[in-house]
Amino acid sequence: MSGRSTSAVLVLEDGRIFRGEAYGALGTGLGEAVFTTGMTGYQETLTDPSYHRQIVVQTAPQIGNTGWNDEDDESAGIQVAGYVVRDPSRSASNWRSTGSLADALREQGIVSVSGIDTRALVRHLRERGAMRAGVFSGDDLAADDVLVQRVLDSPRMEGSDLFGAVTTREPYVVPAVGATRFRVAALDVGIKSNTPRMLAQRGVETHVLPASSTIEQVEGFDGFFLSNGPGDPATADGPVALTRAVLERRIPLFGICLGNQILGRALGRGTYKLPYGHRGINIPVIEHATGRVAITSQNHGFAVEGEAGEEFDTPFGRARITHTCPNDGCVEGLAALDAPAFSVQYHPEAAAGPHDAADLFDRFVSLMAGER
């Protein structure tokens, strides 16, 4: 293999270029460069639909040491637009491994780069913010100014409607484990595989529905779940309208991540883009009613407008900001006070990640049982 074919570059829209070695597939990957602080769970990260059209930078220096397996995917395949690592493991060693990370990236066409200074890159993104980027290798390498222009010609994340690219095309059902206590309609705007599993363990039969579903398809269920997902929540007019219809009918509702933003917009709040987002499995969240702090898994670049503990009027009664992040004051949870609805910005179904917030699924079950 020639020296040219083993080189790769990460090009940022502000002209900063990081040079390394090709890893995974060769070619071009265009998206928004973001970083995640998780030291484990790279397979779940790569297959999380919320990372659709993003180039993910791992802050942990060594990645790939446990290989790739057939059990931990959070969707049907790798979702990222590109992947950036410092030191990929040269061998995989884990009893569940069925292959290597590098092989999975190659087989699924994910253009990646290794051997760059990810510490310098993360500092740059923290100072300048998440931005458009491209990973280029093989025959797609070109002069620096040509590559920068390719990045500048790519779409921005603001205003991007991405959930339509990751939603299920047909409804499907995940049965309850044991006796069925409740039936839930889950709107798939990027749902992770572990969410229906968490519900199933609590006796919930989950009907996963396409993002274009109507209120007629939701009526008759015991509850409504709004999933995580990618893109700008300001583009989610259809899911927001459906959520308003659910609120009008007082169907118990639980949302996470993008679902939190959709509920926020349904309640009349605005959303905005964070400078570099929250991505990792070690992010603290305060629940204001109890003072309890949970360490959470998060993956979001947008947030709901609001202040800690704030109450506000909505078309469906009063609502409250229930959770915030102490790092930056970002809204991490909402609840309607006069309707059976609540949401969080983080991932209580975290895999890999902490389980501090898993009891939120129990709260959803209690809501469907008529307990407030």
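That was protein one. Protein two is written in the same sequence-then-structure order:
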Amino acid sequence: MRALLLENLHPQATAILEASDVAVENHGGAMDEDELIEALDGVELLGIRSKTQLTERVIAASPSLCAVGAFSIGTNQIDLAAAARRGIAAFNAPFSNTRSVVEMAIAEMVSLTRRLPVHNRLMHEGVWNKSADGAHEIRTRTLGIVGYGNIGSQLSVVAEALGMNVIFFDSAEKLALGNATRMPTLESLLQAADIVTLHVDGRAGNQGFFGRAQFEAMKPGALFLNLSRGFIVDVEALREGLESGAIGGAAIDVFPEEPKKKGDPFVSPLQNVPNVILTPHIGGSTEEAQRDIGIFVSTRLRDYVETGSTSLSVNLPNLQLEFPQGAHRIAHLHDNIPGVLAAVNRELAEHDVNIEGQLLATRGDLGYVVTDVASGLTDDAVAALGAMPGTVRLRVLS
């Protein structure tokens, strides 16, 4: 089995896959569609971060691909529906870099509130400007968190421990942690928060949702952070707010357009604006987080190819499986239509194959039945299962 790992993934990912006799090829940067199609010829496993786009075109041109790992929180770089239709399991790391993003957000809040970017620039220019003007503690200030998922909720706890008042808004129903207060609307949060920080997901509906109207609704002089997705913010409107003084400062880690690889030029309307921190999408880029992500996602990929386990897959029905000794495992991914399980069992019975264990899970339009048999599994039986109506992908593990 072959794996292609892109975008400088942690060496632990390679080590885990190679320990399972997977031949791993590493590539430092991202790839465009044509490069990726060529590189995926004969490859079963793909590992990417946020720059490589696994589009429907790439998926359709890569029949050997059976699983992809997004070594990141988000999966919007993968066409999950197209992958599911072709039986390609997708995995991500929803928790592994949470703490790294939270710590960076806290550091940037302190830096902006104390106006450290301004003082740092003046010192490098040879200007000594010791003053308390415009500098504040974050204690007792109100933090408004937009998006109360894994990162937003953990940030809520840490910020409260530092003495901040925490309010949050999320379109889904979320349990408030500690003394955090859920706000009924985004507008009510913007009007009350001294610092607004975005931690929303990459769904298409979030594109451009924070623009001029939202910046104008913020408290005068409030601070703004975006460590989630670049395409959700109108950066031109943010620059206008910063230059007018309506926005007191900003920290931006993600951008609508980002360079493909390290060393490529970067251009943004937010460059050279006072009290602005710009970082190259490194919110989750600590050695600890990248190691944990490398271990977590590569383990999911390994378990899928070895046992058929789809636990924590973001696009296939979830089954957590261990591989029994001395058995063949038939992993049958199919359209979620009535009668498939009975048809699988009927085919096995007609070919004199005795079932030792069986599990079924469904998710949306897909069903996933995993059957363990001790002996008697013939090529004819496998061919019959693969030819069944509604079959998406059939794998035999032994």
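The CA atoms of residues 59 and 83 lie 7 Å apart. Keep this in mind for the problem set.
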